[in-house]
Amino acid sequence: MCALPFSETELLNCLKKSIKNKHSSGPDDIPNSLLRSSLHIIIKPVTHLVNMSFSNGVFPKELKLSTVHPVHKKGCSRDCSNYRPISVSSALSKVFEYAMLERLNSHLVKYNIVSNKQHGFCNGKSTITAINSFVNDIISLLDKKQNVLAIFCDLSRAFDTVDHLLLLEKLNTYGIRGVVAN
């Protein structure tokens, strides 16, 4: 994966895409609107901060803070499992995350790592595109007089059980290693 430092232009684009122009703020109490309106003033120190963080492999602890709001899903309001946490992090934290996401996505596309059958967590794809693809595959097979068998699995909470050493091995296999993987 690209280990080059981030450019100011690259991070300006990340700032514009990752920070909504709202007055809301994270735990640092810096409103998103203030960051957006001062982009050209703060871009140089932000670029330095992001590049130092990635080159040293240290994410600033202040940016790890989030304000968590429990949002009721359904059922009894006294049952904690009926809530999902919504974390509000600082806008600068979002810039770090978005910059890394852009680099990672670029790497995945460049080396054709993600299957075109992948619909989850892909820009421009959704459960609707997954269903459409699935139905088209079924129709195509039935038109050819072939049998169709489908198995559906509920993988909710699947990421909670991932073996981290295995995940790091897989990342390494795909060229994602070092500071980025840690």
From TrEMBL:
Pfam families: RVT_1 (PF00078)
Domain Reverse transcriptase: 71-177
Family matches, as InterPro entries: DNA/RNA_pol_sf (IPR043502), RT_dom (IPR000477)
GO BP terms in the entry: DNA biosynthetic process
SUPFAM superfamilies (UniProt xref): DNA/RNA polymerases
Protein name: Reverse transcriptase domain-containing protein
Native organism: Photinus pyralis (Common eastern firefly)
